[in-house]
Amino acid sequence: MAIKKIESKDEFKSFVEKIEKGRDYKRPLAFGICRIDRGQKNREKVLQAIYPFVNWNENFGSAAVFIEALRESGENIDFTSSEQLFDITDAFIINAISAFNPYLDEAKGDAHKNVQVLKELAKIVECEDLDDSFRILFLFKDDAPQCVESVYIKLYALSLGKAELRSVNLNGAFGILHNVAWFGNEPFELDWLRENEIELKLNGAYPEIESVDKFPRYLQHIIPADNTRILDSAKVRMGAQLHPGTTVMPGASYINFNAGTTGAVMVEGRISSSAIVGSGSDVGGGASILGVLSGTNGNPVSIGENVLLGANSVTGIPLGDGCIVDAGIAILEGTKVAISRAELEKIKEVNPFWDVNIEDENIFKGVELAGKNGIHFRQNSMTGQIMAMRSRREVKLNVELH
Amino acid sequence: MAIKKIESKDEFKSFVEKIEKGRDYKRPLAFGICRIDRGQKNREKVLQAIYPFVNWNENFGSAAVFIEALRESGENIDFTSSEQLFDITDAFIINAISAFNPYLDEAKGDAHKNVQVLKELAKIVECEDLDDSFRILFLFKDDAPQCVESVYIKLYALSLGKAELRSVNLNGAFGILHNVAWFGNEPFELDWLRENEIELKLNGAYPEIESVDKFPRYLQHIIPADNTRILDSAKVRMGAQLHPGTTVMPGASYINFNAGTTGAVMVEGRISSSAIVGSGSDVGGGASILGVLSGTNGNPVSIGENVLLGANSVTGIPLGDGCIVDAGIAILEGTKVAISRAELEKIKEVNPFWDVNIEDENIFKGVELAGKNGIHFRQNSMTGQIMAMRSRREVKLNVELH
Amino acid sequence: MAIKKIESKDEFKSFVEKIEKGRDYKRPLAFGICRIDRGQKNREKVLQAIYPFVNWNENFGSAAVFIEALRESGENIDFTSSEQLFDITDAFIINAISAFNPYLDEAKGDAHKNVQVLKELAKIVECEDLDDSFRILFLFKDDAPQCVESVYIKLYALSLGKAELRSVNLNGAFGILHNVAWFGNEPFELDWLRENEIELKLNGAYPEIESVDKFPRYLQHIIPADNTRILDSAKVRMGAQLHPGTTVMPGASYINFNAGTTGAVMVEGRISSSAIVGSGSDVGGGASILGVLSGTNGNPVSIGENVLLGANSVTGIPLGDGCIVDAGIAILEGTKVAISRAELEKIKEVNPFWDVNIEDENIFKGVELAGKNGIHFRQNSMTGQIMAMRSRREVKLNVELH
Q1: Is residue C332 part of a domain?
Q2: Is C237 in the same domain as C367?
Q3: Chain B contact set for A185 (CB, 8 A)
Q4: pLDDT tens over chain A, length 402 residues
Q5: Chain C touching partners, 3 or more CB pairs below 8 A
Q6: Could you tell me what percentage of chain C is helix, strand and coil, using 3-state DSSP and rounding each to the nearest 5?
Q7: CB–CB of A56/A164 below 8 Å?
Q8: pLDDT category, B127, cuts 50, 70, 90?
Q9: What's the gap in Å between the CA of C138 and the closest CA on chain A?
Q10: Is residue C117 a part of any domain in this protein?
Q11: What is the ipTM metric for this complex?
Q12: Identity of the residue in A53, A134, A329 whose CB atom sits nearest the CB atom of B198
């Protein structure tokens, strides 16, 4: 069977509608065509999936075409499963190209990225074998990923900002990805290196391995916004999300997967997995924002807008807007923090919904101050006491809430 | 017109003298020939300027020759402007070679670097087109830079140690440089990557981007002294200055542009833009020296000689010689520091010009101790109080001052 | 002279026995064949030695064959010296191949690595000159190394886990290794770069230098275990030892040579030269473990099992098992630490051999708590006092000791 060449955009629309009305048909949550890197020793091992374009809750017409092109190529799609993965074949390409015919010419620049992917595949297939190197993945539900391609499409969705941080199911991802040696964007099986170590070394051909990890780096797959800067690719893992305007310095910074920024942020410290930092904030040199696996009792830390985390500070609680943590101090869930009556009154002003008793001397545990706006955490240098006051940073309260 | 071949060094001298006596002639503050990397999409965008040799307040004879060679090639030089930039042409090369004729043979090794540059250009032009890839820049005043080549020559002057840190006008440099993806010393426009992402990725040819930044790294342009070590090129930005004997470890260190060392220094922490560290000092693991943009109220921090900044300490005030900041503590402008009478007397001995009242208990703000010698900053582990005493580190006082 | 082809494994055994019984013969502590990188300018300078396989207190049969093959090729071996180094020649290869004849076929995979090295050399010699690129080193005593090849074999022994950390004599190693620019696993003399800077830069061929150091990186020479992860190759120096299961994150971490882990450890901080961390421990983000050159009075720091060093903490004393150092605090030899009677009693339970007087209030110097199990170091956030209590982490006491 084959899809017959579609001659107009109207015909294309009817074609898609008909597919989408099909019995059992289900629009995918996400889909994409990827190039895969296979194991050097064990070709069945997929070491990496490279997506030139990821669809996340969008482009359902293209999804319908791809699904139909697969069916016409003899594949069955199970819409009840959470994900479905297929090899790209010549037949699939021919079928999909026939369907996309009205869009082939205008597919360039930012327009019709899926068609562009298809056109490039058609070019490749003219010159060489597809060589089992290309696959198409559909996610129908955001269940725990079942294959490498699925983990990658989710990491892409996070890093491209198409899915919100913490919103994607990555359970078991570490078990699915292989630990490999990365060299020039290419993953190598460690066992292959072992097997070829003698030959490579004696011939001066041993590769210059940049990392050994299950994850690639963000910059191996993602093109950041024009005003985003990452001064060292090692500092941002694939799956991190950097809002445009974010700068990541090379000192002691690190942004793990499923962590990042939701506005322009200066990052000179660590944003652990699950931590999120808001617009205008500054993660000072060596500052640590703890993650769910590192001292927050499993509570993910969100840092609000316009917050300053001083150099070498440690933050284990969520902070609201306009907060300051002074250089070198640690505010954890159990840290006791003293606040005077006058300062607590000022802090309350920028936290109108905080139901707090105000005493002459107020001692809070860190966790009790979680998410509050406008707090400046300090250590009294004469007494060593950790205390808090109203920060001098502006807190913009949502007027509609008052 | 053309410069006629000069046959002797005497003739060369007269030739230069005549040029320098010309009406309006002005010796340039700096000049150099550079290779430029142009945008892949927009060839008018200069992404990087690579100087094989930079002249900074020196080699005025070569400057005169280059200026004359430009004029003979039909260019006008405006000596009243702060900077002048010209494309290198075949005519320029021929003219300059004619003038430098008496030096052509001996231009090798450390001798006559400008002539060596010219000879190499002559070699290139024999085999291929110059291809708009080479330019010559003159700085007549240290005004705010007007072009990428000008920013680069100033960064070179700093990194080569030809200009003192903080002495060069880099106002607006961030606005002039383009934010690009760096891959193997080559800058790529992000837009070009976007336009070619699909093709590059599907063909397994996506470049391994090492950083996305306006600045390159120091080691992309600068050859350090034999006894200088930089264990990770990401840790030193172009425009930093490393005195011979400096070692930069790869943990949490970073040296920004317009920052660095004026003697052999062990760097395991951060030297922010505008900060300077003196000979024999040790910036401990994770130690932060704040910059004018990060908590010093705009006051640049100089650290004296033979100073120890402990691991994970934070310093926001200038320090004199022989100081110690203990591991893990932060000394900022507002930090209150207690000093006993006995210790203050000892500290005063190594700060003979410090006009200070000595009480039984003395409390200073950090800023009041700025630049003082021989202070050991500590936190009393029983009371949490930040205190200072005379450090055990030697302070060499300039005898002539006593 | 030549070694005659050995036809059986029995004959091989007799051959080895005869060699080992020879007058003055001494089994080497270590030996290996390496490829060397020579200086670009000064070919006599060895910049790096690459060992495809290192023998450390093992494979004495192969050693005997290699020694005999050298003697048959006209070399004299001085068994009284601490190390002996020879060029690999065609004659050596032919002799050794003759001796290893019974093992040639089965030398593959994990079997007979020395024979595999030899077979690869025989392959190379068929196609091209050996070009003075290969050498064989024997260590007869662990004295201070005398040559680059000797330093490297010792670094390999540490990094491969064949020698225990701190057990190898590396005195003077810094004086033997050359400071070079590393580019794609290849070391370059800085002087060669200087000499070729103009040509390289003008032709757009200047190499992308990754580091300037005497040491290469661990991953340039060592293939880690399948469950070991190193997210940034710059973070682990050659000569470090990583026990399988160790993860090194890219934030503020660093593991120097002669330092590392003896079990699965999460490393997000610095392990200075001479420091060792035990199984199940966690070196938090930015945590510093001081080395003998950085504040421990020359006492190397061992961290026990199941220890947590909090983010940005600093540890300058050895710790036993199950300890915690809270985020942001520094415990050095001189740090005073208060422990209540109740807590000290609980701590003593997991340190049965600690002969300590228990008072109502106990003040210890850090050094007095060195190596003790189950201590949680904290700073009281109300008083600034550094105090300790029994940690909640399990301490497994060796039952046989009770």
Answers
A1: yes
A2: yes
A3: 206-208
A4: 689 999 999 999 999 999 999 999 999 999 999 999 999 999 999 999 999 999 999 999 999 999 999 999 999 999 999 999 999 999 999 999 999 999 999 999 999 999 999 999 999 998 888 889 999 999 999 999 999 999 999 999 999 999 999 999 999 999 999 999 999 999 999 999 999 999 999 999 999 999 999 999 999 999 999 999 999 999 999 999 999 999 999 999 999 999 999 999 999 999 999 999 999 999 999 999 998 877 777 889 999 999 999 999 999 999 999 999 999 999 999 999 999 999 999 999 999 999 999 999 899 999 999 999 999 999 999 999 999 999 999 898 765 544
A5: A, B
A6: 25, 25, 50
A7: no
A8: confident
A9: 18
A10: yes
A11: 0.96
A12: A53
Report if residue B4 sits inside a domain: no
Task: Establish if B2 belongs to a structural domain.
Answer: no
Check whether C136 has a pLDDT greater than 70: yes
Alpha-carbon radius of gyration of chain A:
26
Chain C, nearest residue to A311 by Cα: C312
With cut-offs at 50, 70 and 90, classify the pLDDT of residue B131.
confident
Cβ–Cβ below 8 Å for C295 and B285: no
Token readout for C54 is 């290192």
Give the chain B residue whose CA is nearest to the CA of C334. Answer: B381
Cβ distance C202 to B120 less than 8 Å, yes or no, reads yes
Domain that residue A128 falls in: 9-178
Q: Which residues contact B340 (CB under 8 A, 6 or more apart)?
A: B360, B361, B362, B387, B389
Quote the minimal CA–CA distance from C227 to chain A in Å: 7
Query: In the sheet that B260-261 helps form, which strands lie side by side, from edge to edge?
Result: B260-261, B276-277, B302-303
In the prediction, which pLDDT does B130 show?
81
Query: What CATH number is attached to the domain comprising C147?
Result: 3.30.70.2010
- The per-residue pLDDT for A292 is 81
Burial of A247 (0-12, 13-18, 19+ CB in 10 A): buried
The verdict on A250 and A373 lying in the same domain is yes
- Answer whether 0.80 is exceeded by the pTM: yes
A205/A241 same-domain check: no
Chain B hits for A268, CB-CB cut-off 8 Å, are 270
Is B113 in Cβ contact with C335 (below 8 Å)? no
Alpha-carbon C102 to chain mean position: 34
Same domain, B159 and B51: yes
Residue B229 CB neighbour total at 10 angstroms = 22
Domain finish residue from B213, B231, B257: B213
* Contacts with A93 from chain B: Cβ below 8 Å: none
Q: What is the mean pLDDT of residues B285-303?
A: 88
Check whether residue B292 and residue B393 sit in a common domain: yes
Over the stretch C163-203, which tens digit does the pLDDT of each residue have? 999 999 999 999 999 999 999 999 999 999 999 999 999 99
C187 and C112 housed in the same domain: no
- Please tell me the total count of domains within chain C: 3
List the alpha helices (DSSP H) in C34-145. Answer: 60-72, 90-99, 113-127
State the Cα–Cα distance between residues C298 and A155, nearest whole angstrom.
46
Q: For position A401, what pLDDT does the model report?
A: 47
Q: What is the rounded distance in angstroms from the CA atom of residue A336 to the CA atom of residue A318?
A: 15
Find the length of chain C: 402
Whether residues B158 and B26 share a domain: the answer is: yes
Structure-block tokens of residue A193? 């290196």
List the catalytic residues of A: 268
Q: Is the distance from CB of C202 to CB of C176 less than 8 angstroms?
A: no
Query: Residues C130, C223: one domain?
Result: no
Question: Which residues of C are less than 8 Å from A270 in CB distance?
Answer: 251-252, 268, 285-286, 311
Q: Is C397 exposed, middle or buried (0-12, 13-18, 19+ CB in 10 A)?
A: middle
For B360-385, what is the mean pLDDT? 97
The string of DSSP letters for A181-249 reads EEETTEEEEHHHHHHHHHHHHHTT------EEESS-BGGGT----TT-EES-GGGBBTT-B--TT-EE-
Give the Cα separation of B366 and B290 in Å (integer).
14
